Amino acid sequence: DRRSVQIDGRFAFQPRFFPEQPAPSVSTKAKETTQPADFPLFQDDFSEGELLYQDAVEQLGKGEMTQARLTLERLLLLYPQQVIARVTLGNVYLQQHKFKQALESYQKAQEHNPLLPVIYYFQGLLHRKCGQLEQALQAFRRALFLAPSFWPASLLLAGIYHRLQKIEERQQTVVYTMD
């Protein structure tokens, strides 16, 4: 069921594989030696990168966008292949209207994992926000190719078709989204 996919404004700030509770401070977390049980972000044991990401999530939760951006940039200097941190950084740039940096961040994430549909979804949001409707259309279509049940991408794709006055495609996409 397409409606069961839950992608909302919190996705990049608190991915599903992190606990829902607030992240402890680095000093408390540094004493632990285990990873989150669901999915490790980093290949080694509970690393400095994991701690930095937890700090960035905590900072974003408090609305400290600039500090979170700096933390994510530092993390990516240490772990440049970390896709979720790169997508999160792109989202921070997007919220700060730093569109060029957001696009660069999403493109670097795409280089490391070209099969992650959420990257294309956020690229679509970026292009939509910048009024680049054809690029947004392509990005949302790629996201849906990789994840056909990704209803937020489908819904926004229908809106792009509407703006481009492609009524038949819009109707098909709306029916597909509601199906």
Which spans of ≥5 residues are poorly predicted at pLDDT below 50? 1-40
Shape: elongated
Q: Please count the helical segments.
A: 9
User: Percent range for helical residues?
Assistant: 55-70%
**Residue-averaged pLDDT:** 79
**Structure class:** mainly alpha
Description:
By secondary structure, the protein is mainly α. Helix content is 62%, strand content 0%. It has nine helices and no strands. The radius of gyration is 17 Å and the shape is elongated. The N terminus is likely disordered.
Main attributes of the structure:
single chain, 179 residues, mainly alpha, 62% helix, 0% strand, elongated
Short description:
With 179 residues, this protein is an all-alpha fold. It starts with 25 loop residues before the first helix and ends with a helix. It has helices at 26-29, 48-61, 65-78, 83-95, 99-112, 117-129, 133-146, 151-163, 167-178.
